[in-house]
Amino acid sequence: MLAFIISRNSWRPHSVPLFPAWAFSFGAANNHITNTGFNYDAAGDLLWDGGSTYEYDAEGRVKHSYSTGQWQYPMYNALGQRVEDYQGPDTLTLTYPVDIFGQRTGAFAQWPSQNWTGWNVYWSQIAGQRLNMGGSDAYIDHSDAVGSTTMETDPAGGVQWDVTHYPWGRVFQETGIRQSEVVMGLDWQVNDPVLPSATREFNFRDYRWMAPDPEGGHLENPQTLNKYTYAGNNPTSRNDPSGLDFYLSCQSSDHSGCAQVEIDKSKVWVQADKKGNATIITSDSIRAGENRATVSETGVVINGKNQGIYFDNPSSIRNGVDTNPLDLLGSGDFNGISFHLDANCGGTCLSEGTFSFPGDRSELMGLLKERGAWNYEWSDMTLDEWFYHRHSTQFRFGVEGSANPSPHFVVPNNPKNTIPFGGEFHVDRTANGTHLGCAVFKTGCL
Questions:
Q1: Average per-residue pLDDT for the chain
Q2: pTM to 2 decimal places
Q3: Which of 183-192, 251-260, 389-398 has the lowest mean pLDDT?
Q4: Whole-number CA gyration radius for the chain
């Protein structure tokens, strides 16, 4: 881990490592670190880690930290997003505006001792690339598979900053000058080893979360019973979940590398780790930006390649609020359409919810046809429109006749033709005849 100071248009690294590598011991009963100097409060939140002290608010978020003369007071908005840092001793206030998806859009600095008030950097996401715009310069952020920055380049391809991270987020080596940084999908904090997510903070100096997992863990994946572990102790290929909402569809025809789980009494093959534990991605982690998800003509796509299988997890209902449902944007052929996912057709489809389109019914139907929609000529015009999806027109995607997932728009025959226009949406397991048997008789769903 390197210490950084702030200038008007960039973050400049000191060359001397600030923190040493730690060798940890743990308590068997609660997984607390038991090294000298480490202690926790009654809720299991880390109070001191040998280098910094921490205080927490009633929601379990860090409200004050102190480390060898450097102090910090974070502030949060109503959604729990960290939107401001007040730091000292050379008082500096950093404000982080966020967009409707919870992504930071910049850093605004107020630094009286330097007579400086203004934007240090703007951030923007274009076609999956993060752009860093500070002063008169603009840089493109390049990331690895787990969402950590590996390089920043200028528009001509020149390298501004080249960096390699250890698996748990600490900097291994770097050259050049940093403009901003994302570590494992989380925004790096100036002068602070803590990376905030939507629910708690990760400390890459200690390689773990600072507060216990509010979900409490799941017996089907024993690694989650450790309330502090990051990414199932597999940070080279995963982001850490904070609640269980999505499995990843099995990719092999012989089910190698997969495990069978039960979702609403239907058995499904899903991706698994080397120990046979089902791989799980969470709605909370997607909302926090730790994982990425969109809805396209191939279904719910997670981290650019995996098919998501929704399941309603009882432990994600906290204080009467169900955090499983997820709002996603469309991509590919579904660009311009938004989705709300909250079910799985009682276990007979991969995901289910509603869609919304910023136009009227005729515009939507024209767009879907133009982008390749099709239907089962006989059953869609009889069984579906007479019984299962009454007073509606069916639009399907995917390779017709294949065993691949098939997104299905149920477009209401709404005479009011309102704007925006919406309806039901789900992703069928297949685009062939087994779909009917699964949906109606709950057979052939594997």
A1: 77
A2: 0.51
A3: 183-192
A4: 24
Q: How do residues 276-302 score in pLDDT, each as one tens digit?
A: 878 778 777 787 777 888 999 999 988
Cβ of 359: how many Cβ atoms within 10 Å?
16
Strand ranges, E, within 336-375: 338-343, 349-357
The answer to whether 429 and 445 have CB atoms below 8 angstroms apart is: yes
Q: Give per-residue pLDDT as tens, 408-424.
A: 999 988 666 677 888 99
User: Would you say 161 and 229 are in contact if contact means Cβ atoms under 8 Å apart?
Assistant: no
List pLDDT tens digits, range 360-394. Answer: 888 899 999 999 998 877 655 556 565 567 778 88
pLDDT of res. 15: 32
389 contacts 428 by C-beta, under 8 angstroms: no
pLDDT-derived band of residue 102, with 50, 70 and 90 as boundaries? Answer: low
Prior bond to 196 cis, omega within 30? Answer: no
Both structure tokens of 98: 């966020």
Exposure of 206 in the CB half-sphere (CA atoms within 13 A): 29
List CB contacts of 306: < 8 A, sequence separation 6 or more.
248, 249, 251, 271, 281
